[in-house]
Amino acid sequence: MVKKNQTLGEFIIENQSEFAYSSGELSRLINSIRLAAKVVNHEVNKAGLVDITGAVGETNVQGEDQQKLDVYANEKFIQTLTNREIVCGIASEENDDFITIEGCNKDHKNKYVVLMDPLDGSSNIDVNVSVGTIFSIYRRVTPVGTPVQLEDFLQPGNKQVAAGYIVYGTSTMLVYTTGHGVNGFTLNPALGSWYLSHPDMKYPENGHIYSVNEGNYVHFPQGVKDYIKYCQEEKDDRPYTSRYIGSLVSDFHRNMIKGGIYFYPTSSKAPNGKLRLLYECNPMAFIAEQASGKASDGFSRILDIEPQELHQRVPFFCGSRSMVEKAEEFMAKYK
Ligand code: AHM
Ligand code: MG
């Protein structure tokens, strides 16, 4: 039962029973994410004030080392997740290899791995445009009490137990799913509490927005070019509106609320696309499907891809079901 104006804390407790595994552990994990999100949000909000956007290695006026905001966000999420005795390993866009949580030995029962993009769209920070955090949670597949292994991270998206994102926008929102629909919570910065503002989020049946970096048009495969022309054609309810922030979380969030498609296809310059399967596409695909949308690599379901490497890239088409299916129709002509 979804009640408006619930806090995230209340919501987690009321919905614990829906979680297939130990509900208390997942609740604590989500709790640590909401805490880290508040810390990062605080820093993101004052980015222009304290010049934290400077490069790593620079020193600020107080003589303190400056950190780039994405490095800061990475550290905060890792610190917060590490201290809860639930997570045994973390993989992040910011780290080449996965992190084994120290103390995850025979005395510890930590069962979960978290994969994340701590600050997605970070090229937007300097210009005061929305950025986000993306996270994906799995149960480990290797025995509890042993150090985490690569195979714990290389699980297909359909094995995710939870996924979500935080969008640091005009307001800050945390949106997540545990496989029972998608719920969005807005941060009240005065109180530091997250309120259920967007219960049971669903894509509208028909979308009219397409989001793609059209500057890459000449490098796109023919199927993508044809689909873009279809979006621009004056027919039926088209042309669609073009909206591209260049921040996956923000583009995704808008399209889920208003109806639309986001795509980052392959191109002659990026033969596998740009977005990372494990901590960008899989979590967004899980949320999209839970919101009655669809996520595809242009031909097949994102969540069924068997990952080969931690930082693997895949082409990504995600949004309103009918729009993704139409894009797939165009792609199939040139398969
Ligand atoms: P990042 O993780 O380095 O920020 O890259 C991912 C971002 C997405 O948020 C966004 O949709 C895309 O890259 C934008 O890329 P481009 O500038 O090539 O359009
Ligand atoms: Mg990213």
Automatic annotation (TrEMBL):
Residue ranges annotated for the Fructose-1-6-bisphosphatase class I N-terminal domain, each copy included: 7-199
Hydrolase listed as a keyword: yes
Pathway(s) of this molecule: Carbohydrate biosynthesis; Calvin cycle
Positions bound to Mg(2+) 1: E93, D117, L119
EC number assigned by the record: 3.1.3.11
Coiled-coil spans in chain: none
Cofactor annotation remark: Binds 2 magnesium ions per subunit.
Keyword list, A-Z: Carbohydrate metabolism, Cytoplasm, Hydrolase, Magnesium, Metal-binding
Keyword Cytoplasm carried by entry: yes
Catalyzed chemical reaction(s): beta-D-fructose 1,6-bisphosphate + H2O = beta-D-fructose 6-phosphate + phosphate
Amino acids binding Mg(2+) 2: D117, D120, E280
Residues reported to bind substrate: D120, G121, S122, S123, N213, Y244, K274
UniProt-listed PANTHER family: FRUCTOSE-1,6-BISPHOSPHATASE-RELATED, SEDOHEPTULOSE-1,7-BISPHOSPHATASE, CHLOROPLASTIC
Subunit and interaction comment: Homotetramer.
Name of the protein in question: Fructose-1,6-bisphosphatase class 1
Organism the protein comes from: Salinimicrobium gaetbulicola
